Amino acid sequence: MLKQFIQSLAPRSFKLSRAVAGTSSGSNSGADSTYARNCETREQRLSDTLKRTLPGITYLSVQDISGGCGAMFEISVEAKEFVGLSTVKQHRLVNEALKSEIAEMHGIRIHTVPSKSSIK
After folding, report:
1. Using CA of residue 40, residue 46, residue 48, residue 51, what is the dihedral sign?
2. Residue pLDDT, tens place only, 54-111
3. Separation of alpha carbons 89 and 112, rounded Å
4. Which of 113, 48, 47 lies closest to 80 in space, CA to CA?
5. pTM above 0.85, yes or no
C-alpha cells in the first residue's frame, strides 16, 4: 500500500520539479517560464520598494546578476535625495529601503549618484 502511494506521487513531484526548474508544460521558451516570471517579479518588487522609499529617483536600474537564480542583484540609482550626501550615506539609504529583501539575497551591488538636475 505504501508503495502504491509513493508511485502515485511520482508524476506530481516530476511536474513540480519541472515547473521550479523553469520549463512550463508544452513550452521550451525561457520568456514564458515560471522561472522568468519569478525573476521579473523580484526585480520589479525591488524597483517598486525603492521608488516608494525614494520618490526623487530620476534613474533606476535593477538587474539579476546571479545567472538567473535571483540571489544577487546590481542596483543603480540616481536620486534627488542623494544630493549633498557621501557615497556611504547614499548606500545606507538604499540598504535601509531594501532591508527585508537584502536579508533573502546572497549579495547586492549598489551604485548611487545624486540627481544631476538637483546639483547647483
Report:
1. negative
2. 999 999 999 999 887 888 999 999 999 999 999 999 999 999 999 999 988 899 999 9
3. 10
4. 113
5. no
Distance between CA atoms of residues 111 and 14, nearest Å: 41
CATH fold label, 37-118: GMP Synthetase; Chain A, domain 3 (3.30.300)
- Per the model's pLDDT, the better-predicted residue between 101 and 119 turns out to be 101
From-to residues of CATH 3.30.300.90 in the chain: 37-118
Residue where the block lists cell 549598489:
110
Q: In 3D, which of 33, 17, 34 has the Cα closest to residue 9?
A: 17
Q: Locate 54 and state its grid cell.
A: 525614494
Helix (H) or strand (E) holding 111: strand 107-114
Spatial CB neighbours of 85, under 8 Å, sequence gap ≥ 6:
93, 114
Beta-carbon contacts of 66 under 8 Å, excluding residues fewer than 6 positions away, are: 72, 73, 106
